């Protein structure tokens, strides 16, 4: 893909033009189909710098970088000198001094990756792997690739429901931005009032607190994880109550279009956000999302680092 499509760092999908998004998804599909050069990032060092836990994002970035031939360093915050008080910026600058050119960063603070990007050398690229509740751009991309594979490239007739804890979800923000850029016909958002943001994030969406109504005729149900690590006490009465009102069950799914697909970024709170029957059922694309994560991250690393 043409690198001029992308900014120097991938911090957010907000403002990323349609052409750039489309080019990344097209390239990711080629990777998903097995077409790639195992030496594309030969001699380039990439570090996953995670200050929050992760399974899918970290492992898939590692695999993506390895498949393209990069040297990969996995930084473990729990055994690093951050335990002795070294800052994230000093950590990054020291790794950069060793020759690392690509940083994949997850941090609990909103805007942390953008702030770090102000201090790196011209040839260094940063990817936001999730910052606070702000953005998780590669999750947004892999979700769009998964939707495209299932529903085609024209999103203009699609009805998509995003369900659950939108307020604390960086995934939801990146999905909303990408769905808008791709011209999605109708975006519905459903969750308890206490877990929906009222800061303009949901502008243009059909907002409801009734899951049965929100699912009516949808082509895709994108379920969200309850982000309890970012939640104040008492925002959710109880997990049983949450499941009763906002959990996706096989019975509820019958309200969606017959060929509707079900997605969830993981990790899943089984029996809370979604039942086993649905998560593991024929309409679930949850593991497809995970597979696509590797391909999307290959496309992002290639675009940012092979310039
Ligand atoms: N979807 C996602 O970001 O999963 P991890 O937290 O396991 O990376």
UniProtKB/TrEMBL annotation:
Residues 157-303 form the Aspartate/ornithine carbamoyltransferase Asp/Orn-binding domain. It catalyses: carbamoyl phosphate + L-aspartate = N-carbamoyl-L-aspartate + phosphate + H(+). Its EC number is 2.1.3.2. One of its GO terms (biological process) is 'de novo' pyrimidine nucleobase biosynthetic process. PROSITE patterns: CARBAMOYLTRANSFERASE. L-aspartate binds at residues 84, 170, 225. This is Aspartate carbamoyltransferase. It comes from Lysobacter soli. The lineage of its organism: Bacteria, Pseudomonadati, Pseudomonadota, Gammaproteobacteria, Lysobacterales. Heterododecamer (2C3:3R2) of six catalytic PyrB chains organized as two trimers (C3), and six regulatory PyrI chains organized as three dimers (R2). InterPro entries: Asp/Orn_carbamoyltranf_P-bd, Asp/Orn_carbamoylTrfase, Asp/Orn_carbamoylTrfase_sf, Asp_carbamoyltransf, Asp_carbamoyltransf_Asp/Orn-bd.
